C-alpha cells in the first residue's frame, strides 16, 4: 500500500477547495425551473384531456362502424358504447363485435340485414338503382311487408285457383259414364 504523504494531502486539499460547484443539470437553474413548470402543466392538464378524448373516440368507433354499415340496431350499439364509457371499457368489445355482426333475426323478420328507415333514405335515393340480377342475394329476399287486407285478398284468390285446379284434376280422373268398359 502506498502511503499518503503530507505533500500529497495538501495538494488534494487545495484541489478540492478549487473545484467548481456541481450542477445536476446541463441547464441553468432558471431555465430548469421553467421547463419543470411546462412539464407539470402537460402532465396535470393536457395529458388527461388528450387521454380522455382518445378514450372517448375509441369507444364511439363501434357506433360509427354500425352507422356506416347501416346496421338496423345502431341505437342499441350506441347505448352499449355509452355504457362502456361508464364501466371503464368493459363492454366495448361487445359493442365492437355487435357492430360487425349480421343481424340474422332482423333479416328473417324484414327481409334485409340493413336499416333503410332511419336517416339513411338520402343515401339510398342518391345511389342509382341496379337491376336485381346484379345482386343474387337481393333476388332471394322476400318482398316488402304489405297491408293485411291486400294479403288476405291475395290468399283468397290463390285458394280459389287451387280449388279450381283440384276440380279439374278430379274431373280428369273420373272414368267416362256409359256402357263402355
TrEMBL record:
InterPro entries, per database record: UCP028770
Keyword field contains GTP-binding: no
UniProt signal peptide: 1-24
Coiled coil ranges: none
Compositional bias (Low complexity): 124-145
Pfam families, A to Z: DUF3302
TM region(s), chain numbering: 34-58, 79-99
Region (Disordered): 119-153
Keywords: Membrane, Signal, Transmembrane, Transmembrane helix
Highest taxon above the source species: Bacteria
Name listed for the protein in its UniProt record: DUF3302 domain-containing protein
Species of provenance: Lysobacter niastensis
